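ok trying this again, last paste got cut off
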Amino acid sequence: MKNFGIKSVTTSLIALAVSASGALAADLTMNVGFGAPEESLYGRFGKIFEAKAEEYTGGSIDVKLRCCNQISSEDEAFKAMQLGTVYGFFITGNNVSPHWPLMDVTVLPYVFQNGEHLQRVVDGPVGDFMKQKLQADTSVHLLSFGPALYRDFYNSVRPVNTMADMQGLKIRVPKNDVMLATFAAFGANPVPLAWSETPTALQTGTLDGGDNGTSFIKDMKFYEFEPHLVILEHFVAMAPLFASDAFMKKLSDEQREQIQRAATDAGIEMRAQVLTETEEVRTWLANEGGMKMTRPDLTDFITAAKTVQDEFAAKRGADFVDLVQQIQAAAE
């Protein structure tokens, strides 16, 4: 009787073992960092993304959230993703600009007319163009623009009811040319400072104030030493989620689609939450937080901002001007 099939069975078992080993090797951990506390806007967005990514990939991608600059600072994270040493990070849009100057388009003061305009941009053809252009220029993938908050201004010196009240205030500003020029146009004295150094500088009175997304002011407890809250809505603070090309290349085509879908869906869900919360947080800051809130007439601020828009569009060249025009056209 022939002992046929043994070689075939053995070969099949070896192939199965190799296949199983390959499947295990395909399981990846995606460490996603951010600079803020775990319960901040970034942390909340991250938890939604984590749940959706693990659901959509059937658990083949294990997302680990790393808050509080555990794996990198926000100022250094973009470069680390280009190098492949960091897989994912939430980076405020203005801190991307030193690495990809076109991001400064979104930082221009009063560039978005309202929330609906902003949504049409980030969820439409202009947003898709920006994602493709950034990846082509830097290798880094912009997975989701995420939720967006207009930045609120705060200071420890005086209430601001007109632009004249900004005169001479020492204001912390990220190391971003547009933001520096904007506060200078408003009459303040802008001081570029890394985020990691900002809370201490504000608390010790080295600087008079700064601006952040509304929830961030609460998360960081700035109300404890910054008594004046000013509703300017001059900049949009986005919370984009980025991923390194090194990480994305480790994924199968199916996993890449699943991770992208998780990021998109998480951004939409988080944005819906944020829309209902901004005024609630402002009310909390003015009541429980004890801040004195003002809503100045924005006419002079918008006029000053227009000079900044024109100045930077003229300096930055054709690509920058074209992107500004695409954003403006999306408002129509």
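PB: full thing came through this time. The first strand starts at residue 28 and ends at 33.
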